[in-house]
Amino acid sequence: MDYPELALHIAGRWRTQTQGGRRAVIDPATEETIAHLPLAGREELAEAAEAARRGFIQWRAKSALERCNILRAAAQKIREQAKTIAQVLTLEQGKPLAESVREVTLSADIVDFQAEEAKRLYGRLVPPRVEGILSQAVVRRPVGPVAAFTPWNFPANLPARKLASALAAGCSVVIKPAEETPGTCMLLVRAFLDAGVPPEALNMVCGDPAEVSSFLIDHPAIAKVSFTGSVAVGKLLGEQAARHVKRFTGELGGHAPVIVCEDADFSFALKSSIAAKFRNAGQVCASPIRFYIPRSRFGEWSEAFVQAARALRMGPGTDAATQMGPLAHARRIEDMQRFVDDAVERGAQLLCGGQRAQRPGYFFEPTVIANAPPDSRVMRQEPFGPIAVLQPYDTLDEAIDSANALPYGLGAYAFTRDLHTAHRLGEALEAGMVGINHFGVSQPEMPFGGWKESGIGQEMGAEGLLHYTEVKTLTVGVPA
Ligand SMILES: NC(=O)C1=CN([C@@H]2O[C@H](COP(=O)(O)OP(=O)(O)OC[C@H]3O[C@@H](n4cnc5c(N)ncnc54)[C@H](O)[C@@H]3O)[C@@H](O)[C@H]2O)C=CC1
Ligand SMILES: O=Cc1ccc(S(=O)(=O)O)cc1
């Protein structure tokens, strides 16, 4: 499989030679270097921000229909190249190739949806309360150049969400993908440019994440910051944006509970749970983490869950038989071990896995922990990896309280066959996305965002576009 030569897109030019040096991009399945990524220096970051300022003026001047047509052409190009982009994604990130193909085609769908929404960015006319007013309108206008920061777990989907909405609204962008997975984003950026987005309206930079984000957020050309990543970094970037009163969207971490009710179809719930838990090796912000199981059926569930976890085929994403790939980078392995060791030290039971796999690559065994005390790290922080925690409960009220106990609220799930219980849980679970009897809460047409510390704002759906706009009250009086 081929991996492309990496370049940054700054002020209308692709650059392979940059002032910030370069860093290796590693295949997480083999730990081998597959490419070198040029890094931007401060002057190049300034060039990108200034270009975004000029690009914004050109891009916002296009009609909604023109923007829609260009973005739909970009979506088509992404779809046509889905296999190639997916191969790059799997090489740099590790997930199974079939998952990468699905991610890339879904990214094209996200771009299509936001492109169409550009034509529906309606305002409204409000009857004036005083005489002599011809029209009193509420309209939405693009917020301005956006600095977008995306992580390594969904190298196509997450840049697509930000690029699609920002560009559909008429904003220009400087995007910084994760340095671990830059190739996928580079191919998406190329598709947008080839489709007709003005070269200065779309910039891609990489570098030291903290230096790049700090520089861009402080830069006067940047009007809005959009970040996907950890709660801790989200708070830092949000604070920095707030100091300039710049707009901020944060898609941050979660700690999703799953309540399996006494009346649930256990075999369906278990099959769905295993697929959702170990998809992308658990590196999904809305991934299920805490499974609350009725005490009377805890033994039966634990046994079947462990058996299914052990049966998962781990391997390189390029192997068609692989069900779970490696973790995306070396730091994740160390972090998984800390989660497991801490839980066991505090008295939890390790039912399976719990260690790095004995093979090259950043593989960590599918891990199941039971009865983790509430103060264990795995019960308070997002493991962001292939670790499931099984907890017994006695009453549904108790399970709901436990599910809502953390300061996060991104995804939450439940399984029941009773319609009343389904509605009750749908209301009671405190999260931006609640899935009853299914985990598919991330869809291009639906808003995706967190409650509590899990984030601010939403991406995708009609709401996603609105976060890239400002509201203007526009009153036109009768000329004197
Ligand atoms: N919500 C999500 O989709 C993601 C959440 N995370 C969370 O982050 C935790 C740690 O992930 P790691 O990669 O090990 O650590 P990390 O915190 O170094 O990096 C996480 C992501 O944030 C970016 N980042 C870090 N500091 C930044 C800064 N100052 N400015 C801009 N971007 C910055 C990195 O480039 C990377 O893409 C995970 O355990 C998980 O909880 C990580 C990736 C995606
Ligand atoms: O990490 C967040 C995230 C990204 C993508 C998806 S999905 O592939 O659209 O399901 C879910 C969560």
UniProtKB/TrEMBL annotation:
Reaction catalysed by this enzyme: 4-(hydroxymethyl)benzenesulfonate + NAD(+) = 4-formylbenzenesulfonate + NADH + H(+)
Assigned EC number: 1.1.1.257
GO biological process entries: gamma-aminobutyric acid catabolic process
Keywords: Oxidoreductase
A GO term for molecular function: 4-(hydroxymethyl)benzenesulfonate dehydrogenase activity
Annotated ranges, domain Aldehyde dehydrogenase: 14-473
Assembly notes: Homodimer.
Its job: Involved in the toluene-4-sulfonate degradation pathway. Does not discriminate between the sulfonate and the carboxyl substituents and can also be involved in the p-toluenecarboxylate degradation pathway.
Entry's family note: Belongs to the aldehyde dehydrogenase family.
Name listed for the protein in its UniProt record: 4-(hydroxymethyl)benzenesulfonate dehydrogenase
Protein's organism: Variovorax gossypii
